[in-house]
């Protein structure tokens, strides 16, 4: 199993990005995330998703793959 760190960016705002540590390929991630993002972009404002929604969607589709999600709020920082 190959584990990697992927930055997921679905908007122009960096503070809405999240990091995914996963065994998923780009194609697997895109297959799940892109339709959710496009649905919201093409809606009249009635469709919303959060990063948690995207993560849970990935977990639902790929329950046996390794995934851990991090946002700026959940990343530990050491400053020297």
List keywords for this structure.
80 residues; alpha+beta; three-stranded antiparallel β-sheet; 2 helices; globular
Commentary on this structure:
There is one protein chain. The protein has 80 residues and is an alpha+beta fold. It has one domain (4-70). It contains two helices and three strands; from the N terminus they run ββααβ. A three-stranded antiparallel sheet has the order 1-2-3, with helices on one face. 8% of the residues are buried. The model has no long low-confidence stretch (mean pLDDT 90).
Summarize, please.
The chain is α+β, with helices and mostly antiparallel strands.
- Strand percentage: 15-25%
Q: What helical percentage do the residues reach?
A: 25-40%
The shape, in one word, is globular
Q: What is the H/E string?
A: EEHHE
Whole-number count of domains = 1
Low-confidence stretches: none
Mean pLDDT value: 90
Strand order, biggest sheet?
Answer: 1-2-3
Largest sheet: 3 strands, antiparallel
Distance between the termini: 34 Å
**Class of secondary structure makeup:** alpha+beta
DSSP helix count? 2
Number of E-type strands:
3
Cα gyration radius (Å)? 14 Å
């Amino acid at each position: 199993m190959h584990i990697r760190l992927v930055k997921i960016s679905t908007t122009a705002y960096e503070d809405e990005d999240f990091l995914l540590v996963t065994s998923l390929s780009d194609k697997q991630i895109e297959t799940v995330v892109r339709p959710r993002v496009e649905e919201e972009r093409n809606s009249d404002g009635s469709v919303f998703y959060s990063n948690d929604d995207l993560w849970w969607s990935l977990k639902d589709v790929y329950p046996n793959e390794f995934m851990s999600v991090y946002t700026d709020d959940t990343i530990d920082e050491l400053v020297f």
